[in-house]
Amino acid sequence: MKKMIDTHCHLNDKMLVARVDEIVNNFENDNLLQAIVVGYDFISSKSAIELAQKYENLYAVIGMHPSDADKWDDEFATFLKDNLSSEKVLALGEIGLDYHYENYSKEQQEFVFVEQLKIANECNMPIVIHIRDAMGDLIDILRRNKHLINNGGVVHCYNGSVESYKILREFGFKFSFGGAITFKNARNAPELLKVVDINDILLETDCPYLTPEPYRGKVINEPKYVSYVANKIAEYKGVDVDTVIEAANRNTYEVFNKLREN
Ligand SMILES: [Zn+2]
Predict the structure, then answer these.
(1) Which domains does the chain have, with CATH numbers?
(2) What is the pLDDT of residues 87-98, one digit of tens each?
(3) What's the pTM value of the predicted model, to 2 decimals?
């Protein structure tokens, strides 16, 4: 099996942060090249940068998650602008919309999302989009702000429709897939992955969440389980797993253009 990149993980999460040394030291054995640590607020974004500075094979993505939209302030905007140019910060994310949990403000989520689209555009950075239960509004906001989207990006943990995939790829986005596609209830995954172009696919775990089958509910997810995602995509597409990994790596280097093979 070829070596993989986990393009979306949260080694900055309290469930994993104490084990980062051990996890990174095992990359070679686990068939991993690199992993991208994604922030979702100030503390987790700072931690992502620190991990990327400490470990050669870790990189950072920094931003404010829609579920943390009420934490947005000028200080965070300045923090983003100051750090996006750092060599190991690859993109602005994860940003977007999340209407899953109660008591969110659509207006605040949109405001924070668009503010970050502006910063990404100003700094010529790709974005990493988180979208949950809000696909219609996401597409509307992207259409209204099309002038701000000039550097591509990734829609992470994509589980939308084939139709939304076709709309979103027109903005220049690629799509990352994680453990959810291995779940028995992932009903749209087989059809979706048959349609999604192999040149649009990235691999991720979103660990510590969404542990793939057969480990779902048994262990905390970590980057090494990305191999189960690669195998599942290969199965759905009816191709060799190395074909999936090679394409995913190429796509990853294309989107995150500061990322270098090592
Ligand atoms: Zn995430």
Answers:
(1) 4-255 (3.20.20.140)
(2) 999 999 999 999
(3) 0.97
